[in-house]
Write a structure and sequence with these properties.
single chain, alpha/beta, Peroxisomal Thiolase, Chain A, domain 1, eleven-stranded mixed beta sheet, three-stranded mixed beta sheet, about 35% helix, globular
Length: about 350
């Protein structure tokens, strides 16, 4: 089923809002990418932050950076969101978000303060670290009564959310779904990737011969998926697979990556030659980029000219659970602006959880 896909709002290190994101993308400019210190003991790292202040969240149990990023998107797209709910009815609009960190950063700060003070401080609500909290926040803020949940499969979370959103409509559960992803800055995640030896020593350089790792980032992107709609951009296909190769390492031959790309194209009813832009997962690690380019070579073998293929993570950082949505937003903006006809967005996660999304006019 081909569904209308409208990008309601996106924010990342590229900027705040659709227009600023597209303008900075074209210029290769990322105002939120900067070197930061203090999150990893004894080591500065590059990080992609959303520039500027974020709205406050009134509910104490939901006051996390992840939810404040979500609140930014809701405030900025409130008119379109309210119109969507009014058009279909509160009980016919669903919510599916990709996400991974929730309030882990706030919880870690709470524990640090507890240790420093020797007594339990106020301010932590355990709902902050429940994975489903951002979807429940959005449901309350929009007043919807349909399904509201989170997909959390590490770095493929938001890409897989598109498939989940479409299934809700295909099965008649919803007439429209607000989908996408959100993830805020998280010290725990930074230290985890540092422990794996996956962080770049400087600004990440995906696909470069001297690439040495990733930069992390944060971001949000919200879409409206519906049968009708006037965006002129469509969700054509979603491909998902689990190759289960390794807990953290990708299959060096890229078999899972190839499988998800082929599944997305088949789902869209398209040939590889129909695609003229690929947003790669392209993290900047030696292993990831090598396997993805092998898979790309097989999927697009014989296609001439080959589609433009790039990683945008040097401009956004790796936004983890939100990466698939932020990068789908880049694809959407390229299609909407006429820069390409059909775009393929790849997201590959720990444990071999892979997803590819096809977006076209």
């Amino acid at each position: 089923m081909t569904l209308s896909l409208d990008l309601l709002y996106t924010a990342s290190a590229l900027g705040r809002g659709n227009e600023e994101t597209l303008e900075n993308l074209a210029a290769g400019r990322a105002p939120g990418m900067a070197e930061i210190a203090g999150d990893i003991p004894g080591r500065p790292i590059w990080f992609g932050a959303v520039p500027g202040d974020l709205p406050e969240v009134a509910e104490p149990g939901w006051s996390t950076r992840t939810n404040r990023l979500l609140a930014l998107a809701v405030e900025s797209a409130r008119e379109k969101l309210d119109a969507l709910v009014a058009r279909y009815g509160a009980d016919r609009v669903g919510i599916v978000l990709g996400e991974s960190n929730t309030g882990i950063d706030e919880a870690e700060n709470f524990v640090d303060e507890w240790i420093d003070r020797g007594e339990k401080p106020d301010g932590l609500d355990f709902s902050m670290i429940e994975l489903g909290t951002p979807a429940l926040c959005l449901k309350k803020w929009l007043g919807t009564k349909g399904p509201a949940y989170v997909v959390s499969t590490a770095c493929s979370s938001a890409a897989k959310a598109f498939g989940a959103a479409r299934r809700l409509i295909e099965r008649g559960v919803c007439d429209a779904v607000v989908t996408g992803g959100v993830d805020g800055r998280c010290r725990f995640a930074m230290n985890g990737f540092h422990a794996l030896g996956a962080l770049s020593e400087g600004r990440c350089r995906p696909l470069a011969d001297d690439r040495d790792g990733i930069n992390l980032g944060e971001g949000v992107a919200l879409f409206a998926v519906e049968k009708g709609g006037e965006a002129g951009v469509f969700l054509r296909g979603v491909g998902e697979c689990s190759d289960a190769y390794h807990a953290t390492a990708p299959d060096p031959e890229g078999n899972g990556a190839e499988m998800s790309m082929r599944a997305a194209l088949a789902d869209a009813g398209m040939e590889p030659s129909d695609v003229d832009y690929v947003n790669l997962h392209g993290t900047g690690t030696v292993a990831n980029d090598a396997m993805e380019t092998k898979a790309l070579d097989r999927v697009f073998a014989g296609v001439s000219p080959r589609p433009k293929s790039e990683s945008t993570k040097s401009l956004t950082g790796h936004c983890l659970g939100a990466a698939g949505a932020v990068e789908a937003a880049i694809c959407w903006l390229r299609v909407k602006s006429g820069a390409c006809r059909a775009a393929l967005s790849n997201s590959f996660a720990f444990g071999g959880s892979n997803a590819s999304v096809v977006i076209s006019a």
